[in-house]
Amino acid sequence: MARKETAGIHHITAIVGDPQENVDFYAGILGLRLVKKTVNFDDPGTYHLYFGNKGGKPGTIMTFFPWPGAYKGRIGGGQVGVTTFVVPENALAFWEERFSKFNVFAKKETRFGEEFLQFEDPHGLRLELVARSEGPKSEWEFDGITANEAIKGFGGAILLSASPYQTAELLERVMGMEHVGQEDSYLRFRSTGELGNVIDIYLNASPRGTMGVGTVHHIAWRARDFEDHKEWQKHIGENGYHPTDILDRQYFNAIYFREAGGLLFEIATDPPGFDRDEPADVMGEQLMLPPWLEPHREKIEEILLPVTVRQLKGGQS
C-alpha cells in the first residue's frame, strides 16, 4: 500500500458539564456555529453537540458530550492536553478584548515562534487561539465577530502522551505527518491540510489523565472518502494497532484505536457531512435523531435539558 497521509484533524470530542453553559461558551462567546444537535448514539439520554464553521466542515468541528453534574476529570497523559483554534492574522487583540469583556482569563505563550492566547472553558477544557494566514476565513458571523476575527477551525492540538516518542513515530510513520522540529519540551508535526494541521507533542511526563468533565475523550483524523477510510483501517492494522470495525456515525464513518501513549485516536470520513439530514441553512436548530432512535424521540426529549444559542451580555460567561 502506498504511503498514507491524513490531511489533519477531522474533529475533537470532549466531555463537559451543563449543556447550556457549553452552548453559551462555544457559540455565544467563541462565535462558532452549533451545526448539529443530536445525542450520543451509545447513550441517547446525553446530547452530542457539534460546533464548527458555517458548513460544519472537517477540520473545524469540536464536539461535546455534556454530562450535567458529572465528576470532574483530570487532564493528563493519554489525552489531548490543549485544543488549538486558529483565527486570521492580527485577530488576537480582538479576542483579548472579547475575553476581557466576558471575564475569561487568558494568558500568552510562545511556541515555535508563534504567539498563543491560552484560556479555559467553563468546565476546565484547555484551549488556545493562534493567528495564521492559512485556511479559509469563516463565513459564520455572530455578535460582532466578523470574518476578519472569527475562528476558522482548528489550528491543531497539544498531545500529552505516556510514551511521547512512540506517539511521534505513529504520527510520522503511520499517519504521514511531517516532523517539523523540536523546541524545548515540544515536538512539532505538520499535516497536509490547511486546518487542524499542526500537532505538538509535550515531551515531559504527565500524570495519567482521568476521563470526566473538562477532558478530551478522543481526537479524530481525516480520511478523504469511504474507500480511503477502508485503506486506513487496513493500514492501521498492518502497523500493529487494533482498529475497530467501521462504525456509521451518520455524518461520517469512524474507526477507533488506542495508540501506545494512551490516546484514543479515531479516523473519520469527510463525507457525508452534517447537511445529510437537514438543510444547511437551519443546521443545529432542531434535535436530529438517527432512524433507530426516532421512535423514542418523545422520551429522549423529556430527558434532555433544553439549550438555546443566544447572544450574551458581557460578564455573563
Q: Can you characterise this structure?
A:
The chain is of the alpha+beta class and 317 residues long. It has one domain (9-303): 2,3-Dihydroxybiphenyl 1,2-Dioxygenase, domain 1. Helices cover 16% and strands 35% of the residues. The protein has helices at 19-29, 92-101, 164-174, 226-238, 297-303, and strands at 9-16, 33-40, 43-52, 61-66, 79-87, 107-111, 114-120, 126-131, 153-160, 178-183, 186-190, 198-202, 215-223, 247-248, 252-258, 264-272. The chain has an eight-stranded mixed sheet. Strands 6-7-8-5-9-12-11-10 form an eight-stranded mixed sheet, with helices on one face. A hairpin with an 8-residue loop joins strand 3 and strand 4. The model has no long low-confidence stretch (mean pLDDT 96).
What is the tally of helical segments? Answer: 5
- Give the full name of the CATH homologous superfamily: 2,3-Dihydroxybiphenyl 1,2-Dioxygenase, domain 1
Distance between the termini: 50 Å
The fraction of residues in strands falls at 25-35%
Q: Quaternary status of these chains?
A: single chain
Tally of domains: 1
- CATH-level-2 architecture: Roll
Shape: globular
Ranges where pLDDT stays below 50 over 5 or more residues in a row are none
Strand runs, count? 16
CATH topology grouping: 2,3-Dihydroxybiphenyl 1,2-Dioxygenase, domain 1
Q: Kindly state the mean pLDDT as a whole number?
A: 96
Order of helices and strands: EHEEEEHEEEEHEEEEHEEEH
